[in-house]
Amino acid sequence: MKKIALVSGGSSGIGLAIAEKLIETGSWTVISLSRSQEKIDRALKLYPALGGKLKFITGDVSEAEDCAGISESLGAEYGMLHGLVNNAGIVTWGGMEATNLETWHKILSINLSGPFMLTRALLPLLKNANGASVVNISSIASKHPGTSIAYSVSKAGLDMLTEYLAGDLGPYKIRTNAINPGLVKTNLHLDNKVFTEEDKYLSMLDKAAARYPIGRIGRPADIASLAAFLLSEESSWINGAIIKTDGGATLFNDLIPPKRV
Questions:
Q1: Are 88 and 6 in contact (CB under 8 A)?
Q2: How far is Cα 16 from Cα 186, in angstroms, rounded to an integer?
Q3: Residue 261 predicted with pLDDT over 70
Q4: Which of 18, 65, 225, 234 is packed most tightly, with the most Cβ within 10 A?
Q5: SS (HEC) of 36-51
Q6: pLDDT at 147
Q7: 135 with 178: CB under 8 angstroms?
Q8: Residue 255 has pLDDT above 60, yes or no
Q9: Distance CA 78, CA 93 (A)
């Protein structure tokens, strides 16, 4: 019998890569949750083979009613949930002066309140699995302030939520861990209008690569492999970990002697 996993924000980028990776293992039935039917349609157009392998559903993790409905639906169909990936998130640029209250609330409601509400709503199903794993997709911006005050704060909160749930839900045999990626090439910045022109986004990625000791930014598959491991029994004694996955970007220091390669 296959295990059941739900991946929020699972119609593009890191979320879709995680869903694909889990399907590849042959051990999982995967449900991909997205706020946008348009993104689901885009994923099916780009990857038509997923249509028969991955179940897409719509819902907004920042809405308590949607989270309750998702739990009710999955409970009726499967009765339990072995894996939950809280990946849904949005981003914007701006520090204190450029971030209004509406933007602040929107970022935190999806990036932080969303994982709290979805995990809480799905808790009975996670308990029923008698050994479940929750993986939160955070960011290195949680430890190293980035270009968005709201995004950085939301991810710092998600790290603490991860650590708290690891202790709080551990007695139910539910493990909770976080992955903190560096810059990964996805549709996130374009979909959220941080960049309105793709060529400017790609130019930013090219320039950013110089900060990464291994010479490149991340790929969704880099994060998906770790997520699949954390959801598996092979990581059964890893709980409450905050795993930096950034190609060494946060170790960047221009005082380190350059290499001639």
A1: no
A2: 10
A3: no
A4: 18
A5: CHHHHHHHHHHCHHHH
A6: 86
A7: yes
A8: no
A9: 40
Q: In what order do the strands lie in the sheet with 55-58?
A: 55-58, 28-34, 3-8, 83-86, 132-137, 174-181, 242-245
Q: Is residue 212 flagged as an active site residue?
A: no
- Token reading at 34: 């997205």
Q: Are 36 and 12 in contact (CB under 8 A)?
A: no
Evaluate whether 235 touches 229 at the Cβ level (below 8 Å).
Answer: yes
Helices (H), 110-213: 114-128, 149-169, 188-191, 198-208
Cα distance between residue 102 and residue 111, in whole Å: 14
In the chain, domain spans:
3-189+220-243
User: Residue 89: what residue type?
Assistant: G
pLDDT at residue 51 in the model: 81
Tell me the Cα Rg of the chain.
Answer: 18
For position 247, what pLDDT does the model report? Answer: 93
Q: Give the largest Cα separation in the chain, rounded.
A: 60
Q: Is 259 helix (H, G, I), strand (E, B) or coil?
A: coil
The predicted structure's pLDDT at residue 196: 76
pLDDT score for 195 = 78
Q: Which of 47, 78, 151, 212 is catalytic?
A: 151
d(CA 11, CA 39): 6
Token output for 244: 């930096």
Q: What CATH superfamily is the domain 3-189+220-243?
A: NAD(P)-binding Rossmann-like Domain (3.40.50.720)
Helices and strands, number each (H, E), in the chain: 9, 7
Percentage of residues of the chain with pLDDT beyond 90:
77
- In angstroms, the CA 246 to CA 226 distance is 12
Helix axes 114-128, 149-169, angle to 10 degrees: 20
